[in-house]
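Entry: Lactonase, 7-bladed beta-propeller-domain-containing protein
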Amino acid sequence: MRTSHGVAFALSAGFRLATAAPVCGGNNNGTADVLYVTTYPVGEGAGKLLTLQLAGSKLQVVGESDTCGPYPSWLTQDGDVLYCVNEAWGGDHGDLYSLKINSNYTFTKLSEHETVGGPVSTIIYGNDGRGLAVADYAGGGIDTFNIEDPAALELIKSVVYPAPDDGLPDPQNSARPHEAILDPTGEFLVFPDLGADQIRVLKVNKETLEYEEKPSYTDFERGTGPRHGAFFTSGDKTFFYLVGELANVLQGFTVTYNDDDSLTFERFHNSNTHGDDEPLPEGTAAAELWIAPESNFLTLSSRFESSLEFTVANGTTVPSDPLVTFSIDPETGALTHVQSAPAGGINPRHFSFNSDGTRVASALQSDGRVVVFERDPATGKIGKAIAEGDVEGSPNFATFKQ
Ligand SMILES: *[C@@H]1O[C@H](CO)[C@@H](O)[C@H](O)[C@H]1NC(C)=O
Ligand SMILES: *[C@@H]1O[C@H](CO)[C@@H](O)[C@H](O)[C@H]1NC(C)=O
Ligand SMILES: *[C@@H]1O[C@H](CO)[C@@H](O)[C@H](O)[C@H]1NC(C)=O
């Protein structure tokens, strides 16, 4: 633009103000109409990266892509770039892909890089979001990448942790980092390790994106299987909650930041995933845990319970696993059970909230179904299903387009 710097600035600022609302939709119900879903293969088929759109009470598949390999799972969005991992079951490594999100529901691969085997979760970290950490379940390690240029993924470091030496069977015969989580200060990456019964702690250098290993939290009963977790801050207090998949427990911790750049976790809550001590059905396996946006409500998913029912669109009632919600006391971190709502079928491996917490998307891996529910952000309660869709393969992740 051939103008003075000041004028150019004023014009571009005005342009952004004038066009922001129509281009972005203004409120988030425009973007909450589109979901990105990954599926695992069933039989001989390959898994897909799907784009689903709400159309009345249906979730329609409007895009289908194989740009994330045959075993796609966790997705992390960053503007118009989507980071997707290929678990590559049975392979000696996994893959990280950076994909450009096109407006016509296709994805263009920008870059790819190998990871340690079986990547299942990614998180962006570091100044200006230039780093990305990966939790590698099958291979028992983690990777860090420089993603400053999403078209040139640059590996910083891959680590494989030693296997536990106490002779337990799979999955506790190996380290199994299951989720990459950034703490609220952005200074620490933590990884619940389902195989080694630990919370691994890394102190990151936000500028160089490198890290230092800090002592893990290890005070778990062997066989807990820490899988997924989330931080919650209130005033100057920090709490951490996690689900243990193998023991089906929900645990809460007070987190202390120490002067030597380590983290201390002190457990104050330990119940089953329903918040009580009742035995859960044989085969139950806790999966996901999130704290809803801008709220003090925690929701987790529990698989293979068939403890509830859900009526699908054709009127048939099918067995359902629960999404279990708790409120968090901001003073003490204490949890109070709020609701056990149907997840919409069996095996809700993943669910997520839209940005204002008015909707929940649930991926029912065993039923080949994705369901969007309404949610009341004030009470934390999940309401009726507003849309559902059947997909080929086994949906393992569902996230609202940002
Ligand atoms: C979006 O939100 C507005 C205002 O809340 C509402 O009138 C409209 O029906 C919503 N649109 C969709 C597609 O949900
Ligand atoms: C979708 O958009 C991309 C990027 O603009 C383009 O390369 C591709 O050809 C389009 N595909 C279809 C089917 O229109
Ligand atoms: C209704 O949907 C369920 C679940 O997808 C399916 O198992 C059942 O066969 C369907 N029933 C009819 C009558 O279409």
